[in-house]
Write the structure tokens for this entry.
Amino acid sequence: MVDEGSIIRENPRPCSQAGREADQEFHATLLKATGNSYFISLTTGVNAAVNTTNMFKQRDRPLERDPVPDHMRVLEAIAAKDAAKAKRRMSELIKLARADTPTPRTKKPKKRA
């Protein structure tokens, strides 16, 4: 059973140490909740990827959008044992996380004189 209250305790911002720890706990709890030893074995790698992506996203400034409510919607759907809703909520969370990630700017080619 997922205890969403213990995962994201006081809605810490993701740029804080408490926010990073809550995010790691969130992903570890989701993987553990699968009961699948393969998925559980991915916890360290998933947390490393999420942490690195978050550092990249916030290297210039903190996120403008608070992602905690999006995480809570995933947990609420899981706690309600609504697999379809949990899948939708997780897909939304991933889309929002990707939208929060800046894309590299490409330099325009110099015009030849």
Notes: The longest helix spans residues 83-100. The chain has a mean pLDDT of 80.
